[in-house]
Amino acid sequence: MKPVTVRVPAKVNLQLGVGPLRDDGYHDLVNVFHAVSLFDEVTAVPADAPSVTVEAAPDAQVAIQNVPLDGGNLAMRAARLLAERAGVEPNVELRIRKAIPVAGGMAGGSADAAAALLACARLWKADLLLPALPELGAEIGSDVPFALLGESAIGLGRGERLTPLETSGTFHWVFATADGGLSTPAVYAECDRLREARGERVPWPPAYDELAKALAAGDARALGAALANDLQPAALSLRPSLRRTLDAGRELGALGSLVSGSGPTTAFLAESAEHAAGLAAALAGAGVAKQVVRAYGPVPGATVV
């Protein structure tokens, strides 16, 4: 069997509406996903026993030391789950090359799980399971199905029930990473705490109509005005320095800005590729981020290369 390599994108949440806490411990979400051109690669290699290795992509400042190499690694969990369903031994070495920030709110771990599902399905010639990969991915994490799909989509439930959204043209982004990560469960818990402290009655998240219209029209200005993230106050509470980064991006001319997912990566929408280049340089010069990177979207989901 020859090794199989899959490339998989990061995501930014254009809207992350967080509803009430459910009995199962999750929240109902209205989650508008957008796949962007920061990619991890996962290579599945035949082996005598399951293992994971991780390296940073060239020029990527990612904290690979924080990526688990044991049973907590989402990619290996995905490979084991697929092996169980395929009736094979999970004897595979997963070689992960990372450019997506670790614990940065851009679903890097979920992306690697999606890539591992596709790579192992191809490696083990389990083609009959390909249509079931999104369902299997949802057992690993709520963001895994979108990493398989890519482009732009609305996610309901925990975010795993996806409907593609029409998108015209290309949107240009600047992402500012921060030192250290933020735990997604901790950010959700802080969101619940802040709401309880304010005595809020948590409503169903608002509709995503304006975002959908902006995506369909390819209207960057309208999209920037519609960006929203209910987890942002919690992320700022846990990491107050992010407020300075967001303020800097707005002052430097971003069309819109928000914390990406549970953070701490912050996302800034630009009007064009040229605008993104200038904004990235200005943000880097402002000293408000560990690293500043440019990307564009939408892009396809997990793809064999």
Automatic annotation (TrEMBL):
Catalytic reactions of this protein: 4-CDP-2-C-methyl-D-erythritol + ATP = 4-CDP-2-C-methyl-D-erythritol 2-phosphate + ADP + H(+)
Membrane spanning residue stretches: none
UniProt keyword list: ATP-binding, Isoprene biosynthesis, Kinase, Nucleotide-binding, Transferase
A single MF term (Gene Ontology): 4-(cytidine 5'-diphospho)-2-C-methyl-D-erythritol kinase activity
InterPro entries recorded: GHMP_kinase_C_dom (IPR013750), GHMP_kinase_C_sf (IPR036554), GHMP_kinase_N_dom (IPR006204), IspE (IPR004424), Ribosomal_Su5_D2-typ_SF (IPR020568), Ribsml_uS5_D2-typ_fold_subgr (IPR014721)
EC number, UniProt record: 2.7.1.148
Sites where the protein binds ATP: 101-111
Pathway in which this enzyme or protein is active: Isoprenoid biosynthesis; isopentenyl diphosphate biosynthesis via DXP pathway; isopentenyl diphosphate from 1-deoxy-D-xylulose 5-phosphate: step 3/6
Domain GHMP kinase N-terminal: 73-150
Coiled-coil residues: none
Active site: residue positions: 11, 143
Pfam families assigned to the protein according to its UniProt record, in alphabetical order: GHMP_kinases_C, GHMP_kinases_N
Positions of the GHMP kinase C-terminal domain: 211-285
Entry keyword annotation includes Nucleotide-binding: yes
Domain of life: Bacteria
Role of this protein: Catalyzes the phosphorylation of the position 2 hydroxy group of 4-diphosphocytidyl-2C-methyl-D-erythritol.
NCBIfam families attached to this UniProt entry: ispE, PRK03188.1
Family to which the UniProt record says this protein belongs: Belongs to the GHMP kinase family. IspE subfamily.
PANTHER family with a match to the protein in the record: 4-DIPHOSPHOCYTIDYL-2-C-METHYL-D-ERYTHRITOL KINASE, CHLOROPLASTIC
HAMAP family reported for this sequence: IspE
Name listed for the protein in its UniProt record: 4-diphosphocytidyl-2-C-methyl-D-erythritol kinase
Source organism of the structure: Actinomadura gamaensis
Designated gene of the protein: ispE
